[in-house]
Design brief:
heterodimer, A: 2 domains, six-stranded mixed β-sheet, two-stranded antiparallel ribbon, 13 helices, 46% helix, 10% strand, globular, B: mainly beta, five-stranded mixed β-sheet, two-stranded antiparallel sheet, 7 strands, binds zinc ion, Mopterin_synth/thiamin_S_b (chain B), tRNA processing (chain B)
């Protein structure tokens, strides 16, 4: 089959069919349109302002590796004036995270960005390996999810950053829309398509790859010869998400615009702000923002420390009644409330 | 029997299904021979990429073929490049292979 000419520059041979548009484009035009679209996403959503300190949540996987490369490139090209950092969380999973952290350490050198690694072990006194040993493989993703979210916030506070950017791409967001529909979680359905979220007190989180297709991210990494790590977490057979992903990939194969269409559908569900949101307070033990006396991480940690984390709720309640939490319970280091420059001062 | 020598490279975690080896130099027949019980090729047609996929499944794949093939093509989410070009521009499985072609297959399904 004769090679085809790039529809953008009309000169070079096309090497890629864009899933979003069906256009056939050459390598140089691909780099340009991919980077420019991310730049447009960033500027349209006004994600940053000059002087912002921004942490890139870096796992060593494809999305965050490409994100680090593109953020660095755009910051230099368009003079965003951002101070960029790599922030990695070490969950303590032998044979998975230790290998991917090696990739992040190489990225640190390749992109010349300061790197902060924060481990579950130093923060909570528990690695995921140790947690799985106690509670088994059934609910370990709950622990990991709660612990990772707080770890990222704490790492960001340590780096004194205003903002965390993550590598979530269009496919990830479409998948989350589908999962929220399947679970009937309408409140999350409205929120999961937001490009930028900010809790009451926590640091801003954004997704500059919101409109970037996974295919293009992987092709970008391939053609730029970026160094990334690809293995599934050994503890996460998240079957439900897996089915959603396969379903989405089947839809994409039949009609590539399905991914953007699903995101637009999610955006169309404009959900009225949840009126039942409990008054936010801070965790009595660690100071993290929380809607209960104890934040989720402290509650989970207490269960682990007392050896009751893997038990059913009834058994747990009985044990908790029988004996209160011991005084010398291990706690998470106190969470310093990040000073916010844009904070409204009382009149 | 005439043959084709090809360089086949796996990435993005797909190499885990192929002895955790990224690059394989393979020699395959230059015309399709019915090689698989679930895929009857028309003999004597020149070998194309669909034929190569089945050849790889029968000769190199070590585990979990459902993570590699779905019917007569790769599982959705696996990208294929032929000589550094997206196979979607080259007729996908119908592309007729030439000696020394380089085929790259990358899974996009592994964590970000
Ligand atoms: Zn071009
Ligand atoms: Zn707490």
């Amino acid at each position: 089959m004769p090679s085809k000419t790039c529809v953008l520059c009309q000169k070079a041979n096309a090497i890629l069919k864009r899933p979003k548009t069906g256009q056939q484009i050459c390598k140089e035009c691909f780099f340009t349109v991919f980077e420019t679209e991310v730049h447009n996403t960033i500027t349209t959503a006004k994600l940053f302002k000059p002087g912002d300190r921004v942490a890139i949540g870096a796992s060593g996987g494809k999305d965050s590796t490409v994100l680090a490369h593109v953020m660095k490139t755009l910051n230099d090209r368009y003079n965003y004036g951002l101070q960029l950092f790599l922030l990695s969380i070490d969950e303590g999973i032998t044979g998975y995270r230790d290998d991917s952290l090696e990739t992040v350490k190489r990225n640190q050198i390749q992109y010349d960005l300061p790197l902060k690694i924060l481990s579950y072990d130093e923060l909570y006194g528990w690695t995921m390996d140790a947690i799985v040993e106690q509670i088994g493989r059934k609910n370990n993703c709950t622990f990991c999810g709660v612990f990772r979210r707080q770890a990222l916030d704490r790492g960001a506070a340590m780096l004194e950053v205003d903002h965390i950017v993550t590598g979530h791409n269009a496919d990830d967001i479409a998948e989350t829309v589908l999962m929220n529909i399947m679970r009937g979680d309408i409140a999350r359905l409205g929120r999961c398509t937001l490009i930028c979220t900010q809790g009451e007190d926590t640091i801003k989180r954004s997704k500059p790859f919101k409109y970037a297709y996974e295919k293009e991210i992987v092709m970008y990494a391939y053609f730029k010869k970026l160094d990334y790590f690809s293995t599934e977490c050994i503890y996460s057979p998240d079957a439900y998400r897996g089915h959603a992903r396969v379903f989405l990939k089947d839809l994409e194969a039949a009609r590539p615009s399905a991914i953007i269409d699903i995101i637009h559908s999610g955006e169309a569900f404009e959900v009225a702000e949840d009126v039942k949101i409990k008054d936010q307070q801070t965790c009595q033990r660690c100071g993290y923002i929380s809607s209960n006396e104890l934040c989720k991480a402290c509650a989970l940690l207490e269960g682990l420390e007392r050896g009751i984390a893997g038990m059913g709720i009834k058994e747990r309640r009985r044990l908790e009644k029988a004996a209160p939490a011991p005084e010398n319970l291990r706690t998470i280091p106190v969470f310093p409330r990040a000073p916010k420059s844009n904070e409204k001062l009382p009149a | 029997m005439s043959t084709l020598t090809l360089k086949v490279e796996f990435g993005g975690g797909l190499e885990l299904l192929f002895s955790n080896q990224r690059v394989h130099n393979v020699t395959i027949p230059s015309t399709m021979l019915a090689s698989s019980k679930d895929w009857e090729a028309t003999s004597n047609d020149p070998a194309n990429v669909t034929y190569l996929l089945h050849w790889l499944k029968d000769n190199l794949l070590k585990e979990r073929e459902e993570l590699f093939l779905e019917g007569d093509t790769v599982r959705p989410g696996i990208l294929v490049l032929i000589n550094e070009t997206d196979w979607e521009l080259l007729g996908e499985g119908d592309y007729v292979l030439k000696d020394k072609d380089e085929i790259v297959m990358i899974s996009t399904l592994h964590g970000g």
